[in-house]
Each structure stands twice: as C-alpha cells, then as structure tokens.
Design brief:
The complex is a heterodimer of chains A (about 650) and B (about 140). With about 650 residues, chain A is an alpha+beta fold. Chain A is built from 18 helices and 22 strands. Chain A has six domains: about 55 residues; about 100 residues, 2-Layer Sandwich (Beta-Lactamase); about 120 residues, PAS domain (Beta-Lactamase, 2-Layer Sandwich); about 100 residues, PAS domain (Beta-Lactamase, 2-Layer Sandwich); about 70 residues, no CATH class; about 140 residues, 2-Layer Sandwich (Heat Shock Protein 90). In chain A, the strands form five sheets. Chain A has a five-stranded antiparallel beta sheet, sandwiched between helices. In chain A, strands 7-6-10-9-8 form a five-stranded antiparallel beta sheet, with helices on both faces. In chain A, strand 11 and strand 12 form a beta hairpin. In chain A, helix 16 packs across helix 17. The N and C termini of chain A lie far apart (about 195 Å). Chain B is α/β, with parallel strands linked by helices and about 140 residues long. Chain B has a single domain, classed as Rossmann fold (3-Layer(aba) Sandwich), CATH 3.40.50. In chain B, about 40% of the residues lie in helices and about 15% in strands. Chain B has a five-stranded parallel beta sheet with strand order 2-1-3-4-5. In chain B, helix 4 links the parallel strand 4 and strand 5. The mean pLDDT of chain B is about 90. Classes of the chains: A alpha+beta (about 650), B alpha/beta (about 140).
C-alpha cells in the first residue's frame, strides 16, 4: 500500500468517520425530538382525557341538576330517559312505567304536535315550541319546549332530547302584563292631560292625543315617537302669550332636572294650561322626563267666578245694614261685620275671641242664647229677640236670626247670627200696646159716659112728663081745648126726644161691647122680628129664599134687620105694601137684599142716607140714626151696603155679610 | 097678705119721689114710704133693725154711694141681705143689669117715659110684693 493509497484510504476513513459522526448527531437530535414529541403527546392525551372526564361529569351534573324538565324520547315519542323535574312536572316516570310523550298532548294540539315533531326529524331541532299538555297530577299546563335530534356515527337519527318548561303561570302573568300595558296605553292615549315623555337625549318616547291637540300638532301620537325635541319649545312658543318666557322657563326646568308642579301658562287663544315636569332617574342616572299639560281654562273660569261671588258676598256682608257675627260652638266670636260693630259699639279687636253672650246679653238673654246655641248644634235655625247692653251700657233690643255654620265635612262648627236692632220698633210696639189699653179703657169710659148721659138726659124728660100729667090731672075740666092740645104736643116732643137719646146711645154702643159670635139662624131672627115689629095689615113681608145661618152677635144682626125692615114698613105709601127679603150665596159672603114698593129715595140722597142724623123724612118716629146704625154694623162685619131706588116705586137695600 | 108695705125708696130726684108718692096715693094704697136721698142716708136708716122696710126700691144713678155699691153693702149684711131689693132705674145698660143680678136683686124695673105707664108698673110691682110672704123685721 502505498502511501498514497494509504493516504487516500486514510482520508476516506476520516471522511467516513466525520459523516458517521454527523449522522450520529442527527440521529441523536431526531431521537431527542421524538422523545419530546412523545412527551408532549402524552401530556396532551392526558389533558384530553381529563377534559373528557370533566365534560362528562359536567354534563351529568347538568342533566341531573337541571331545574327544567329534561326528556329523551325515541323517534316514536316513547320516553327513554327523564330527570326528576320531568317526573314531577308530568307525573309519570318511565322507570316505573313506559309511556309516550305524544299521548300527553291535549287533543286540540294534535296537528301542532305533528308539525313540531316533523321539524325535529327533518330540521334537527325546534325552539320556543309551546303546547298544552295534560299532566297526571297538575291538570293542563302550558309548556315551552326546546328540542334537538340525536344522531349516531352514521348520521342516522336515533332519538330526540328536549327541555320542557312549565310556563302556565308565566304566560298568565305575561297576559296580565300585556293587558295592563294595553290599559295603561289606552289610558295615556285618552288621558285628559297632554303627556310627553322624553328620554335623556330629548327624543320622544311617548305622547298622546291630548298633547297633540293642545299643541296643535297635526300628527298621530305614534308618529311623534323618536322625534327630537330640542327645538320643540321654540316651535311651539307662538301658541303662548309670553313666548320668550315660555322658552326660557322650559330651558331652565330641563337644566335643573327638578320636579316642577302646577306651572300656569296662558295661550294666545285664551286656553290656560297647567304644566307638571317630572324628571325620571334610574339608579340616580337621569333617564329623561315627563311633561304633563292640563287644560284648566274651565277650572280657572270657575275659580274666577267663585272668587267674584265670594267678593260680592263679602261686600254684601261687610256693608249690609244688618249686624252679622260668626261664632264657634262655644259662642266665641270669630268674625263681625261693620254694622255689628256699629250696633254694639265695640271695635273689631275688642270682639274677636270674646264669648258673645258674656259680652252683650242680659242675664235672661244669656240663657236664651245658650239654649239657642244647643239648637244650632242640632242643625236648627231660629229667630229670636234678646236684650243686650251696648258697650256704652245702653240697653237695646236685638232680633237675631241664627243658623248653624257647617264645615266642609258637614259638621256644625258654630253659627252665624244676623242681628237687627229693633229697640225703636220694640218701643213703638210697647207704645202701641199702652195706647191700645188706654183706648180700650177710654172706650169703656165712653160707653159708661154714654149711658150716664142718656140717663141724665132721660130723667128730666120723665119728670116733665110726670109734671104735665099732674097739671092735666089737677086741672081736670079747667083747661081749654087749645091748652090740652099744647100739652099733647109737649108729650109728643118728649117722646121724640127720648127716642133720639135711645138711638144715639145705641149707635155709640155698636162696636164697643163685643160679645162672642154664635151661629145665628137668620130665618128665625126675621120671623121673630115680624112678631116684635108692628106690621100693619096692608103690608106683607116675604122671605124669597131660605136665609143662611151665620156667625155673629144676635143683638147686632137683629138691629140690622130690624132697622131695614122697619124703614121699609115706615116709608110704605102703597095700598098693598110688599117687603121682600132675599139672599144669594157667593164664595166668601152672602149678599142680602131687602126691597119694598114704598116711597123710594131720590138718587141724590143715596150716599147721604147712611150718615148720622140725616133723616130724609122728619117724623115723630124717625131720628135719622137707623141707617147709620145699619152701616156701622155692616162695617163691623166687613160687609158692604148699597141702595137701588126710584122715587115713588120703591127701594132695595143690598148688603153683604162675610160667611 | 099684708095690707100695707113698708117701702124704703132710695132716690135722689125729688120729682121721682113725688111720682111714687102720688102714684101710691092715687092708687089708694096704704103703703108706708120711707124716703132716703142717697145710699148713706139709707144705711143710716137701716141701722135701726126694729124698723126695717119690707122692700127697698133703689135707683142706680146716685151721687156718693151709687146704687150698685149700696147693693153690695146691703148683701154683705147678715140681716139686711134678706130685704127684697128692686132696682128702679132709667139705665138699661146691659152691664148694670148683669152686675145687679149677680149681686142679688128681687127685680129690675125700667122707668118709662110716660107717667101713666109708670103708675101702671108701680101698681103691679107693689101688688106683687104685697102678695108675697116676707121675713118679718
């Protein structure tokens, strides 16, 4: 071997050695890599295993602990598996007895169920499927089902699993909520107030018809939702009497975000609005605000007219000529008007808070007031008179009209008394009473006087008559014819005088001695008169219609008829004298007539004949007082008398007497 | 029956007294007439209980004690109240009439205007009382 060869060999060997070394190194490296990989794989495998284990237990936990009912069924609806919730919801347990889920569905749901099942089979799942089922123990329930299809490795459907939730109550609550929401919405829509709800960005969230109406917005409330309100104040300001103030106020309110109630706004058309601003905060975060506008024009008008009325009555009370006070149930003075202050002489400060009856009344009147106040508490009104002392100590008479005063709740809180000073009236009344008594007395005295006068006047007449008789007797046969005739004249004159005195007395007696009124049968009375009076044979007295029974005094009625009938007899110049008495019944009185066919009375005397001493025919038995007596009696009975007569033909006296 | 009555006439008018005297004498009655000008005089006369009249004729209108007052005094007296008292007057005043009957009278005669009528009334009046049995004095 040559060196060269050796060298070549040596070099080849070295190359070989180096290559082997490099390969060894690569191998070494690769092996280390492999080891690492194996290590990695192992740990990841372990991890995976752990993960699977975790998931499995997690799933089992979910399945077992799931609150909602969980059911697994085969493709024909037979239950394969179910959890406790499902058992308690449905009332059936597949571990005890096989059952088919589809059979639980309500009959009415058959088609719905088929559709649902179809969806699971061909689409793989259903969600939000709602169906009514008949449970074993809990009756019919509405349930909500989310279900999905279970497939094997070859993608063949083998079962379905689903979560069943009982939403019967939820549904009912939801329904109620919707109803109440609807009601609320309708309420807001038809609210008598305009409502505008803006969110925090001043975008309209809700409004109603009234709002659109008040602000003359020609849109539906729904169309406004979502619109920006930033410029709405500016747009609407022309509607208001003070447009700038309107805008400023809105801006300042929105800036402050504080509750504002009862702002009043006057619109150009006269409408008055009341505005409320209610800011809305959620967890102290500003979420928007609510505007409420109410048309209070009418209310405002009422208030104004009530105010005007109040003003009017206050003025009347203050200035009326009657004293008015308002007192509490304890008679404490709460209010007194000007007239009352004048009447009592006190100032307002002196009276307010005082007990009324202790301030004015005399002892007797105090009791009266206290009693009256008891009546006020019962709600009774009354008028009464009391005696009081004015501030200056002068005794006065007051007429009080008291009425209970009620609170808004209808309780008696005191009384209101209207006072009139009747002292002068009272004095006049007393004067009148005294005068009446005096009059009565002097009437009696006059009556007495008339009797005495008539006695005193008649006595001398009797004496003269006696003396004349004696002279005639004592000189029997000695007196000539003329003297005897003169003596007769003296006697006639005396008789006339006596009659006159009697008539005057009778006339003056009418109306003084009033006796009780009785039922007087006038038929009887006239028949009696026919017997008492001297009725010559040629005169007949006829009663044409039955006369009534009337209330009166017998003597006066007798005088009345006697005077008229005797006149008719006296002044009859006919061969056959006829006197007719008649009566007509009227609503409140009787109208009598006494007519004769005698001498009659000239028209010019018709009024005069009723006046005293006005005899038309001076004769020995006529004094001219008879008709005056008639007139006086008729006046006393509040009747009337008049005459119808023609000279030579006769006279009719008509007169009325009250029933 | 008595032949004659003892009559006490209480009357202030002279002519009225004359009338009674003349009437009784013209009628031939033997009555004894005692005159008293007024109530006081009459009461004085009546004090003598031994000489009491059978009847009293009393006028109402008199000075001093008037007729009614006199009547009252009379009726309050235990003895005198039994003497029949007849009112002889002009007054037909209803009040007087009532009052007299209330106190107690035996008659009420109105004096008529005509003397003849007066005589006739007196005749009947006295005849009546003469006929009556009276309590002796």
């Amino acid at each position: 071997m040559n060196k060269e060869e050796v060298d070549i060999l040596k070099r080849a060997l070295a190359r070989e050695k180096a290559a082997r070394k490099a390969a060894e190194k690569i191998l070494e490296e690769k092996s280390a890599e492999l080891y690492d990989l194996t290590q990695e794989l192992q740990s990841s495998n372990e991890q995976l295993e752990k993960l699977v284990k975790e998931k499995t237990s997690e799933l089992r936990g979910v399945f077992e602990n799931i609150i909602d009912a969980y059911v697994v069924i085969d493709l024909w609806g037979n239950v394969l598996k179910m959890n406790d919730s499902a058992v308690s919801l449905l009332g059936y347990n597949n571990e005890i007895q096989d059952f088919n889920l589809l059979e639980l569905a309500d009959v009415s749901e058959a088609e719905h169920i088929m559709n649902g099942f179809h969806s699971i089979k061909y689409e793989g799942s259903i969600t939000d499927f709602q169906v009514k089922i008949n449970t074993k123990n809990r009756g019919q329930r509405l349930v909500h089902i989310n279900a999905s299809l279970i497939i094997d490795e070859e993608n063949n459907p083998i079962a379905a699993q689903g979560i069943v939730r009982d939403i019967t109550q939820e549904k009912a609550a939801e329904k109620q909520l919707i109803e109440s929401e609807n009601r609320l919405a309708t309420l807001i829509q038809n609210l008598d107030s305009g409502v505008l709800l803006e969110d925090e960005n001043r975008t309209i969230a809700l409004t109603n018809k009234k709002f659109c109406e008040l602000f003359k917005i020609p849109l539906n409330p729904e169309e406004l939702i979502g619109q920006d309100c930033t410029n709405s104040a500016e747009d609407s300001k022309v509607l208001f009497e003070e447009p700038e103030a309107f805008v400023d106020r809105i801006n300042s309110i929105i800036e402050k975000r504080e509750l504002v109630l009862g702002d009043e706004l006057v619109m150009v058309n006269g409408t008055v609005l009341e505005r409320d601003y209610i800011p809305i905060f959620e967890d102290s975060t500003y979420k928007g605000h609510l505007w409420k506008y109410k048309d209070i024009t009418l209310r405002q008008k009422y208030r104004q007219s009530i105010e005007a009325e109040r003003e009017k009555y206050s003025n009347i009370i203050a200035n009326m000529n009657l004293g008015l006070i308002e007192v509490s149930v304890d008679d404490e003075i709460l209010m007194a008007n000007n007239s009352f202050l004048e009447m009592s002489g006190y100032s307002e400060d002196e009276l307010i808070g005082q007990i009324a009856h202790n301030t004015f009344a005399t002892d007797d009147s105090k009791k009266r007031i206290v009693n009256e106040n008891l009546d006020r508490k019962k709600g009774l009104s009354n008028s009464y008179e009391i005696e009081v002392y004015r501030k200056d100590g002068v005794l006065r008479n007051w007429l009080i009209s008291g009425a209970p005063n009620y609170s808004l709740n209808g309780e008696v809180v005191g009384s209101i008394g209207i006072h009139l000073d009747i002292t002068n009236l009272k004095n006049l009344q007393r004067q009148k009473e005294t005068l009446l008594k005096e009059l009565e007395k002097s009437n009696d005295e006059l009556q007495e006087y008339a009797h005495i006068v008539s006695h005193d006047l008649k006595s001398p007449l009797r004496s003269i008559n006696a003396l004349v008789s004696w002279i005639k007797e004592d000189n029997n046969g000695k007196l000539d014819k003329l003297s005897l005739q003169n003596f007769d004249h003296i006697e006639t004159t005396l008789e006339k005088m006596e009659l006159l005195i009697s008539d005057v007395l009778e006339y003056s007696s009418i109306g003084s001695n009033v006796t009780a009124k009785n039922d007087i049968d006038l038929n009887e009375l006239v028949e009696d008169l026919k017997r008492i009076l001297f009725v010559p044979d040629h005169i007949s007295i006829n009663i044409l219609n039955p006369l009534p029974v009337i209330k009166g005094e017998k003597t006066k009625l007798q005088q009345l008829f006697q005077n008229l009938i005797s006149n008719a007899i006296k002044f009859n110049d006919k061969a056959h004298g006829i006197i007719e008495i008649d009566v007509k019944e009227k609503s409140s009185y009787y109208q009598f007539s006494i007519s004769d066919n005698g001498v009659g009375i000239d028209k010019q005397y018709h009024d005069k004949i009723f006046k005293i001493f006005h005899a038309l025919n001076k004769s020995k038995d006529s004094t001219g007082i008879g008709l005056s007596i008639v007139k006086k009696i008729i006046d006393l009975y509040k009747g009337e008398i008049w005459i119808e007569s023609e000279e030579g033909l006769g006279t009719t006296f008509h007169f009325t007497l009250k029933k | 029956m008595k032949n004659a009555l003892k009559i006490l006439l209480i009357e202030d008018d002279t002519i009225e007294v004359m009338k009674l005297n003349r009437a009784t004498s013209s009628l031939n009655m033997n009555h004894q007439i005692i005159e008293a000008k007024n109530g006081e005089v009459a009461l004085e006369l009546l004090k003598d209980h031994s000489a009491l009249p059978d009847i009293i004729l009393l006028d109402l209108n008199m000075p001093k004690i008037n007729g009614i007052e006199f009547l009252r005094i009379l009726k309050n007296d235990d003895r005198l109240k039994y003497i029949p008292t007849i009112i002889l007057t002009t007054s037909n005043n209803q009040k007087d009439l009532l009052e007299c009957y209330k106190i107690g009278i035996a008659g009420y005669v109105l004096k008529p205007l005509k003397y003849e009528e007066y005589v006739s009334k007196i005749e009947k009046l006295l005849a009546y009382w003469r006929m009556n049995e009276l309590i002796e004095a």
